[in-house]
């Protein structure tokens, strides 16, 4: 049996090894356990868990979990080109040469190539409804299917930092008009 301090150290090392920044490690572990995954430790103290019907080291399971449920992770730290057992975000701009495009079409088909976005979608966090609307339609549909109320829970677009918020500052306007000789 592993003691509590060694278990905490091993868990933190697995999170670090995954390379993904999760918003809260404790909440991520709770969400992972809610999927039915239970963490066990081998003789060396390395954490393992069952995820995707496979017995995996915890760091690999965390990568897959982060890609399956990106709301727990900082999207900028998710693997762009996939991970073991997961496809990455692909775009036509990733295929630089004609031979690469031909090989990709031969493997996946012309219809799949036609459905690829021109550029890779932004991996920045969706923090407002304005960010949501910038996502490709396919990504919005996938996220909506996973969580139908996600859009409504997001705050409206953040207020601009500039002093021009759409309200007219009448005193400044009058002064400007007098300066230009229009009043």
Secondary structure layout plus pairing:
Elements: H1 4-18, H2 25-34, E1 39-41, E2 47-51, E3 54-57, H3 58-68, H4 98-108, H5 110-115, H6 129-134, H7 137-146, H8 150-153, H9 170-179
Antiparallel strand pairs: 1-2, 2-3
Characterise the protein shown here:
Helix content is 45%, strand content 7%. With 183 residues, it is mainly alpha-helical. Helix 1 packs across helix 3 (58-68). It contains nine helices and three strands. The chain has helices at residues 4-18, 25-34, 58-68, 98-108, 110-115, 129-134, 137-146, 150-153, 170-179, and strands spanning 39-41, 47-51, 54-57. It has a three-stranded antiparallel β-sheet with strand order 1-2-3, covered by helices on one side. It has a domain at 1-87.
Low-confidence stretches: none
C-alpha geometry: extended
The total of helices stands at: 9
Number of strands: 3
Mean pLDDT: 80
Which range does the strand content fall in? 5-15%
Largest sheet: 3 strands, antiparallel
Strands side by side in the biggest sheet:
1-2-3
First-residue to last-residue Cα separation: 86 Å
Order of helices and strands: HHEEEHHHHHHH
Query: What helical percentage do the residues reach?
Result: 40-55%
> Class by helix and strand content?
mainly alpha
Q: What's the gyration radius in Å?
A: 24 Å
